[in-house]
Amino acid sequence: MKKLGMLFMSVFAVTVVLAACNSDAASDDSVKTDAKKEQTESKQATAVKKEVKQMQDELATVEKNITAKNDADLKASAAAMHKHWLAFENNVRDLYPIQYTDVEKFETPIFYMSKRDKLDYAELATNAAGLKTSLDAVGNAKETKAKTSEVLDKAVDNYSKYVVEQTGAFVADTKIFTDAVKTGDMAKAKEYYSKSRVYYERIEPIAESFGDLDPKIDARVNDVEDGADWTGFHRIEKAMWADNTLTGMDKYADQLRTDSLALQKEVGKLKLEPKPMVAGAMELLNEAATTKITGEEEAYSHTDLVDLAANVEGSKVVYQAIIPALNANDKNLTQQIDDAFVKMEDTLAKYNTDGNYVSYEKLTPEQIREISNQLSHLSELMAQTGKIF
């Protein structure tokens, strides 16, 4: 404020006093507003914790039915728990985004597995145990107030751990696959062909970043100029489904084993950044929508839906990792992506019976178009998350 001279000193003094009073009043109002906001947030948190407690009770019922191996009661209790989770999950996502991801990781599989005709109670029990731990974490969580840069660093750390975990599982199941190929066990080789590839497809953008490892592991015959250089999964796929023999596949099995271990070594040295991480997830969905949906990926086994589902799962992990940062920038987009993933999962679930996806050849053109459109929509939504960087 300017000093206006002696003539106005008395007026100035009065003004200062009034301003001070108003400032104090404003300060008091600000404190009251902040206190009110904290109280509101506390009420929101209290409400969420109450819902979590109810869900823990519902989970206890689910676990009881898993132990009893009661199909009908399990299906009903899992459906009831899922319906309740959908009713309040957005509040968990907003207040506790990191813990939200862990709940989703275990709750969603329980729901979809419970809908199958043949139930895998061991897998259900494993997911139930994970969900129990995750709900406990939500019950003890504090609201996330970190800066965007901090939560993105956390997102990268979480995703890096996921990639390491998936790569380890890939190496383990690939060894079972290659051992079966070398011993001539066709049934086991076919079983672990898909099982091992699930882990690879979930982290495919990462695998593609290591020079020629991806072509050596995952090239299709049309991807190589000289058929003599063709190695990896799809070379053995052709032998199993088209040629109906494993004769001569030992060298390809040995090479695949070597390449899988090389991939694991490279992953161990990996340094990720948030933006390329999200770009990889977007690219994975886009590739699935445009090329994999054509049936070219699994030309002999026709297990394309296994790959597509794994691509969706891997991309969802990236999305869930960045939820804390996305919440702070565009909650509406978060909800759109949530809805799109649920719709995609529901669509794929229609073609899964007892944990096995139908052959790609059984899909109608309309069904293929539906899957492709949903994958493209997801990719477009993921592209919009670039605003957080």
From TrEMBL:
GO cellular component: cell envelope
Compartment(s) where it occurs, according to its Swiss-Prot or TrEMBL record: Cell envelope
Alphabetical keyword list: Coiled coil, Signal
Boundaries of every Imelysin-like domain copy: 155-381
Superkingdom per UniProt: Bacteria
Signal peptide from the UniProt entry: 1-19
Principal subcellular localization: other
Coiled coil spans: 45-72
Protein name: Imelysin-like domain-containing protein
Organism, as annotated: Listeria grandensis FSL F6-0971
